[in-house]
Amino acid sequence: MAAPLEILTAPLPAETDPGDIDAYLAGGGYGAVRKALKSMSQAELIEEINASGIKGRGGAGFSTGMKWNLCADRFPRYLCANADESEPGSFKDRLLLESKPHQIIEGMIITSYALGINLGYIYIRGEFFQIIDQMEAALADARKHGFLGADILDTGYDLELYVHPGAGAYICGEETGLIESLEGNRPYPRLKPPYFPAAIGLWGQPTIVNNVETMAQITTIVDMGAEAYKAIGSEEDTTGPRLFGLCGHVNKPGIYEYDSEVTLRELIYDAAGGIRDGNRLKGVIPGGISAPILTPEEIDTPMGFGALGKLGSMGGTGGIIVMDETTSMVDALLNASSFAAHESCGQCTPCREGVPWMNDILRRIRNGQGREEDLDLLLDVCKQIHGHTVCVFGQAPGVWPVRTILVKYWPEFRACIERKELVVPPLEESYLRPDQYEHIPPVPGNFRLKTEEADAAG
Amino acid sequence: MATITIDEKQYTVEEGRNLIDAAADLGIDIPHFCYHPGLAPDGNCRMCLTEMEIRPGQFGIVTSCTIRIKDGMNFRFNSPAVLDNRKGIMEFLLINHPLDCPWCDQAGECKLQDHSFDHGRGHSRFVETKRVPPKKDLGPHITLYTTRCILCQRCTRFCDEITGTSELGVVQMGSKSEIATFEDVPLDNKMSANVADICPVGALVTKDFLYKPRIWHYEKVDTVCPGCATGCNTTLEILHQKVYRTKPRHNEEVNGYWMCDEGRFCYHGWQDVDRMKAPLKRVDGELAQATWPDAMDAAVSGIQAVLDGEGDSAMAVIGSPVATNEENYLLRRLGAEAFGSPWTGLDRKPDGEAWTSKSGFHIDADKTPNTRGARDMLGAGSLEDILRGIGDGSIRGLYVLGGDIGRTLSTEEAEAFRKLEFLVVHDVHRSDLAELADVVFPGTIPFEKNGTMTNGQGRVQRLNPAFPPPGGAREDGAILRYVGQRMGVDLGGTDPAGVLEEIAGNVEGYAGLTYDLIGDQGAMTGGEGPSEAAGG
Fold first, then answer.
1. Of A330, B122, B224, B524, which shows the fewest CB atoms inside 10 Å?
2. How many CB atoms lie within 10 A of CB B294?
3. What's the confidence (pLDDT) of residue A454?
4. Residues A330, A91, A266, CA angle at the centre, nearest 5°?
5. Residues of A in contact with B61 (CB under 8 A)
6. Per-residue b/e over B202-214, b at no fewer than 16 CB within 10 Å?
7. Is the pLDDT at A15 greater than 80, yes or no?
8. Which superfamily is assigned to A21-230 in CATH?
9. A241-324 maps to which CATH number?
10. Which chain B residue's Cα is nearest to A364?
């Protein structure tokens, strides 16, 4: 049994306000900034982050060191800390923003220093208005103590950080959508290529967009050193502590901190106290709604990006949604699809038209008006959207849940259509076993039924 | 130049050119909706997705509209992945489209229709309810049939990039997205009607061209806009000797892909005017209809009387900035050779408003199309010189090419013209000037003219006649030639191309110009003046 960690979730001293900079300083806060700015060169810092093996915590699991190295050699450069957390099932950024604002600011200062950035933004989801106020206050305190502004800690390095409230849409968290939103535009994601933020980002300049948890982790890396950090977790799955948010039908929902070797079973049954009312597990989404669902047979997997990728799923944001045997997967998928249909930004055709169409079909099936051909139609619409959109929204929350839930819980959808009403079949009859479907790599969520026809079609 | 491969065939195309344009040059159509060569690529419709070799042997899906040609690029335009995507996009675009082609004004020139025919599946798998957002009145010229919109955003980009006025934007999200204006700021800029041209479907339509005959009934005539000295290249759509619509014709050096609303809708003014269909001559102090021989007799004898009277050069000619170079040139010859007059003047309408868009599209303050060319042809002095000549009695007779419907006379001008012993006017309606004349010949409006005009930059451009002049009205060149003939001067053949040849031999700056050289894009005179493009 993996042991819980207390690195990012280290409890605050009793009765302290998380935004209180004096308490934070008393506990050794801003030590990482001092260490980085006073005793490390920019190259050493970048090397340290590279050596730590950290993968970004935004969901895609992209190497943070590599992202920094891709930053075009042009100045000015900008930093955007992405705190527009809106993936259904995810709430780990919110916890950090509420409890460790100064650790995030520290990480942003270190990142900015390492990359020669003098201006950064922290883009916070608009609904988190209390967090926005608290972050503003924390930035003001940091400024007062000389950690921000001109000539930080007498090193001659200048940095300003500003809070930007989110514009109220999921797509504002897509990195180029976030940049558009910061520029004051509709957050339509940009075309990639050519608009990779590290090359052409905010105001056309190289821009690093990192998740806020990644920012907090940077502080941890500098604090504990790359060697010690690397010892947590594994190189392949990602090093360092991970925050897992469990929600749904577990007895103790909440944020749990483990390394990435912890298994899904351990998280559900040990950390989160098992499933409500002693029910059996029906399915679990391992990393926010976009992450393809796992059936009860698949939960003995470690929670690293690599291990989940092998199953055709992904690490995502670590927001784990647990569903017990009473759940209707038709309802669950309709719920996920409604979210995607509502949040599609409407810029490009396949996502704007296709995702709401799938939602309409699913609603019809749920209401007992499904047709024999609807399931194949859904899979075909998925195919028409997949890979044809401007950004990954169309496929991540748009297509992957439909494809995976539909394929893996095919019998339940069939039952719903045949009996012309919403039915929740007995657990054993509701889903396929892993040998009945297959994942087509490298794309997560690209599942298909293993049938004779499918095999013949290749 | 660059060598690229398309579906395993090699082609040589211009390096750096947009892939869609480069393919079009080769006669290969890459279907697209949101891309327009006059606007920055946006890549939102996803119709133009093709496969490009990203690494040796490995192809990936890319948006053609954002690809700039580089040597060695390798594309697949017809692979299963590409064709499947097109079919998919067509299906997506049509699920909420009303398919009201039978009463949509775009039918016949609709990209959605064309691509549906070429790439669609022919039947719908969509059994849900279509969304039906209401129709919107966007501004003085434009209505949005919201249901038909495919959200390619050409219109919003036009208002951002070309006019810089940004009246249009998208409201709502996802499938509820709609093109809209902001609160009470209508789509009302000087180029607003261009959004209807670039709308690939029948969503944005001009109120002017609503419920009109089907587009395939029209005859199309390329000409030049008579609205101002910019001389935007246009195509007139003609049915039953009437203009139904004016559309800008691409000319990178003049107007780009655009034209202004004033120019676009100015055809109403020209064709709604009460046209004069027979000559007029003054009888007992009143203008009365006359036959051509009668009017011609009256004109020639009147002119002869002035020439026979006291003083040397008592007749003067005034050219017209709405007449062609050829007409003004013939007028000069008539003045010099038949009247023996050194006096040439050029009419000048008071200046209007000049305006330049964000992209550099220019609307000239001179609201006549050929001031520059007429001046070149006539070597003309100002109208004031002529008025002075009338005032001091040295000019006693005048031959005026009129024809500008918007021209009214000032009190001073009218007073001066009243002093004349004899006044001959070419005009298209009973204008202030015509009312003062002794003989009025019914001439042509610019849409009936065959010849060339020289725009403000010095670009000589072709006008093609859209229809013959009505009733007894005649081409101005023919009238001038007839008057010359009656006075013993041969002004040459009736073919404007021949007149241009003569101009090329005699007028400074026009050397070497021929119809062939001018073509449909015009050619610069050797004269001074800005040569950079006014279009954008």
1. B122
2. 15
3. 53
4. 75
5. 387-388
6. bbbbbebbeebee
7. no
8. NADH-ubiquinone oxidoreductase 51kDa subunit (3.40.50.11540)
9. 3.10.20.600
10. B128
- Measured CA to CA in angstroms, residue A286 lies from A85, A298, A405, A410, B1 at distances of 16, 11, 13, 20, 52
- Which of A193, A349, A361 lies at the smallest CB-CB distance from B45? A349
The distance in angstroms from the start CA to the end CA of chain B is 25
Closest in A194, A347, A364 to B44, CB measured: A347
* Tens of pLDDT, residues B330-374: 999 999 999 988 888 998 888 999 999 999 999 999 999 999 999
C-alpha triplet A97, A223, A35: angle, nearest 5°: 110
Instruction: Write the pLDDT tens digit of every residue in A147-196.
Output: 999 999 999 999 999 999 999 999 999 999 999 999 999 999 999 888 89
The length of chain B in residues reads: 536
Shortest Cα distance, chain A CAs vs residue B177, angstroms? 6
Cα separation, A98 vs A113, whole angstroms: 24
Rounded to the nearest angstrom, the minimum Cα separation between B250 and chain A is 28
Contact A344 B175 (CB under 8 A): yes
Rounded to two decimals, the pTM is 0.93
Give all strands (DSSP E) within B1-156, no chain letters: 2-6, 9-13, 49-55, 58-63, 74-76, 136-137, 142-144
Cβ contact A376:A367 at 8 Å: no
3-class DSSP state of A56: coil
Question: How close A343 comes to chain B (CA, Å)?
Answer: 7
> Closest partner residue to B125 among A188, A350, A377, by Cβ?
A377
Give the count of Cβ contacts less than 8 A between chain A and B. Answer: 95
B175 contacts on A by Cβ (under 8 Å): 341, 344, 346, 352-353, 355-356
Nearest to A388 among B42, B88, B125 (CB): B88
The contact set of A with B (CB < 8 A) is: 169, 186, 188, 191, 193-194, 341-357, 360-361, 364, 371, 377, 383-385, 387-390
Residue among B43, B44, B174 whose CB faces A356 most closely: B174
Q: Do A233 and A240 contact (CB within 8 A), yes or no?
A: yes
Average pLDDT over residues B455-477: 95
Domain A329-457 has CATH 3.40.50.720: no
What are the extents of the domains in chain A?
A: 21-230, 241-324, 329-457
Question: Taking CB atoms and an 8 Å limit, are B177 and A354 in contact across chains?
Answer: no
**Closest Cα in chain B, distance from residue A92 (Å):** 27
Nearest 5 degrees, angle CA A335-CA A339-CA A342?
135
Q: Which one-letter DSSP state was computed for residue A4? A: P
Residues forming a β-bridge with A257: A243
pLDDT surpassing 80 at residue A1: no
Contact B44 A349 (CB under 8 A): yes
Which residues of chain A have a CB within 8 Å of the CB of B126? 357
ipTM at complex level: 0.93
Rounded distance, CA A418 to CA B42, Å?
A: 44
Residue of B nearest to A386 (CA): B85
